[in-house]
Specification:
The structure holds 2 protein chains of 2 kinds. By secondary structure, chain A is mainly α. Chain A is built from 8 helices and 2 strands; from the N terminus they run αααααααββα. Chain B is built from 4 helices and 5 strands, in the order αβββββααα. The chains are: A mainly alpha, B alpha+beta.
Chain lengths: ~200, ~200
């Protein structure tokens, strides 16, 4: 596979949310607004690229028996780095995302890419794969967040889109709304593409 | 034995490397994080007090206000605001655990007559769109100028004077009860809270 396909597969063909349906905890929990979705996506992309890079770099040094704990330590380190940086330079986002940042450690998408891709591929491919998957994930979170914010609160990035007469569909902002919005998007994708989820 | 040693050494090295990276990042972000927290605190304090010219985050007293379930002392910080060296108000943070989900943190500002200047909801995880409306100005503004004597500190549904929110009674009820408790504590410990270092009680 060429590097370009390695990059684009994460965005569409194997989009982690819409096609692989991996790492659903942050997808459902933080996508109440487009901004939160975007912030979470950027944090995950950063962790994914860094952990893929380091895992690929050390793939010949880590014995197979302890690879999972080794991967988890690497991932947890980058997640903590993100958490520190977010609190220092993006405080509002830090408040909004709260507990879901440390929970990135147990996101199966990141461990999945480390185990399934980075540990078997050279460094450059691993970075490109991480970037593609991260951008695909960010895109999905942004789309879901935007749908839930527009219809659930009648706003996008805090600006009203419908007039004051629009009654917001509160349900979309509540936890069940996350499942419903995701289900609707998946249904549309199933209808329009060959790949069935 | 040999492969076992290799596993131990590899994991130890990786963990040590991780520790090194984390300590570097921590020392680089320590100051910005402390500064951010101070700014946030000052913002919340300024929102609930009249104009002041001192630095309440430095002019504060910490008192033990009770004990939690594990019998650990539970403290509250009182920030004193002064203008031209005269006390204009005190801000303090109260926490309610009776909300619909999670703790509600409220910053309360009172003037020297123990009347509320304003309140600010610092954090809550109430239901979005229902209970979370305790952060709306309509709800917060009704606390202005209230004190322990001029108000029946209950929501209207319970026979009091504070408007609850449509579709949400639990969150306002928890908020009101927490603020009332805070005011009562303030009244009982007024001398301690207002005492300056070196001042006679």
């Amino acid at each position: 596979m060429s590097l370009t396909t390695e990059f684009t597969k994460g965005i569409w063909d194997k989009n982690p949310v819409f096609k692989l349906v991996l790492g659903m905890c942050p997808v459902l929990a933080v996508t109440t607004t487009a901004e939160n979705g975007l912030g979470m996506g950027v944090a995950i992309t950063f962790v994914l690229i860094c952990s893929n890079f380091v895992v690929s770099l050390m793939r010949k040094l880590i014995p197979a028996e302890v690879r999972i704990p080794a991967f988890i330590i690497i991932i947890a380190t980058f997640v903590t780095v993100v958490q520190f940086m977010m609190e220092a330079w993006a405080y509002d986002l830090h408040l909004a995302l709260g507990i879901y940042i440390p929970l990135i450690v147990v996101n199966c998408l990141i461990l999945g890419r480390a185990e399934g891709f980075a540990s078997k591929n050279p460094v450059l491919r691993a970075i490109v794969d991480g970037a593609g998957m991260g951008i695909g994930f960010t895109l999905a979170l942004f789309i879901l967040g935007a749908i839930r914010e527009v219809f659930g609160a009648g706003e996008i990035f805090g600006y009203a889109v419908f007039g004051a007469s629009y009654p917001p569909v509160l349900l979309l902002l509540l936890p069940p709304g996350g499942f419903i919005a995701l289900g609707l998007v998946l249904a549309v994708l199933n209808r329009c593409t060959q790949h069935k989820v | 034995m040999k492969p076992f040693c290799r596993l131990v050494i590899t994991l130890t090295l990786i963990a040590a490397g991780a520790g090194l990276v984390l300590s570097l990042v921590e020392s680089a972000t320590r100051e910005p994080i402390a500064a951010q927290r101070k700014i946030q605190q000052l913002k919340a304090i300024s929102a609930v007090l009249p104009v002041f010219d001192n630095s309440p985050t430095d002019d504060c007293v910490v008192l033990e206000i009770g004990r939690d379930k594990k019998d650990q002392p539970f403290s509250c910080t009182f920030f004193r605001a002064r203008k031209e060296d005269q006390l204009v108000g005190v801000a303090f943070r109260v926490i309610s655990r009776d909300g619909y989900s999670g703790a509600i943190e409220i910053m309360v500002g009172v003037d020297s007559q123990e009347q509320i200047v304003a309140i600010e909801i610092l954090s809550n995880s109430e239901t979005p769109g229902l209970g979370s409306k305790i952060t709306s100005t309509v709800f917060k503004d009704q606390f202005r100028k209230r004190d322990l004597t001029n108000t029946d500190w209950r929501v209207k549904k319970d026979g009091g004077e504070i408007d609850q929110l449509t579709g949400a009674t639990i969150s306002p009820r928890a908020t009101v009860a927490a603020i009332k408790q805070g005011l009562e504590f303030f009244k009982q410990h007024r001398a301690q809270i207002l005492a300056r270092q070196g001042d006679p009680l």
